[in-house]
Amino acid sequence: MGGVAQRQTFMSAPAARGPIVTIDGPAAVGKTTVGRMLAESLGFLCLDSGLFYRAVALATVRAGGDPDSADDALAAAQSLRLRFAPDPSGQFAARAFDGNRDISEALVSPEVDRTVSLVSRIPAVRAAMLEPQREALREGGVVALGRDIGTVVCPEADLKVYLDASPEMRAQRRWKERRENGGQMDIAAIRENLMARDRIDSQRSIAPLRAAPDALVISTDSCTPGEVVRAIRSAIAARGLIREC
Ligand code: CDP
Fold first, then answer.
1. Cβ neighbours around 108 below 10 Å, total
2. What is the CA(50)–ligand 1 centre distance, in A?
3. pTM of the entire predicted model
């Protein structure tokens, strides 16, 4: 990731913790790219909550379970010993482990893309994932990414952002990202997967994908990630959470 941090000072946060910025939005809208750049520029951690649900989907499938079965998905969620560690290549991205097994690449496989929204609509799975996410946010100084972070996991966040973009643009971004990582997927299949996930994510009864009423909504079709990061930083500074100097 390029361009680190203008110098800044944190101003007093409302609670006895560092600031929390949430970024929610549909699949492949750029949350991960923007979230990592923003976190790096602020010296914050980046918590990608999608990885929790992806890990549950992977564990369910690997155990031979049905991702649509609450019992199978919950058993998989409970079996996980998920942890994140810095990437030894020195890149900003973290690597994900289940116990000692590195599952980073498997978490973004087409099979997980296909099954993750099924396990994430199961209330018991969401309940099991809530506390680990809140624990990861406890000290603040975090940019947290997902679908329900500003609405359910952390409605008290200091700034809530909702990113949006057209399905065409999102499919193009995801296709490019997967290709750069050696994946070979057809763009039409990617678009179909994004649309299917969006449908399940926004129609589920618990914690559906939606913008928090007080979210800053940014449409990113014609913005570079750098422009989105600058817009979010301005909003953070306007709330007095950082002072740009
Ligand atoms: O990177 P992308 O936006 O495609 O997906 P992700 O953020 O890794 O999330 C994968 C899936 O996990 C989503 O489609 C949701 O079904 C689920 N998810 C969720 O339900 N709640 C969250 N806070 C994060 C992800």
1. 18
2. 4
3. 0.89
Tell me which residue has its CA closest to atom 25 in ligand 1: 50
Q: Minimal CA–CA distance to 37: which of 6, 89, 2?
A: 2
> How confident is the prediction along the chain (245 residues), in pLDDT tens digits per residue?
333 333 344 444 455 789 999 999 999 999 999 999 999 999 999 999 999 999 999 999 999 999 999 999 999 999 999 988 877 765 556 789 999 999 999 999 999 999 999 999 999 999 999 998 999 899 999 999 999 999 999 999 999 999 999 999 999 999 998 888 887 789 999 999 999 999 999 999 999 999 999 999 999 999 999 999 999 999 999 998 887 76
* Distance between CA atoms of residues 24 and 151, nearest Å: 9
**Contact assessment for residue 96 and residue 109, using Cβ atoms and an 8 Å cutoff:** no
- 201 pocket-lining for ligand 1 (C-beta < 6 Å): yes
Superfamily of domain 51-139: P-loop containing nucleotide triphosphate hydrolases (3.40.50.300)
Superfamily of domain 18-44+140-245: P-loop containing nucleotide triphosphate hydrolases (3.40.50.300)
Place of tokens 């809140």: 134
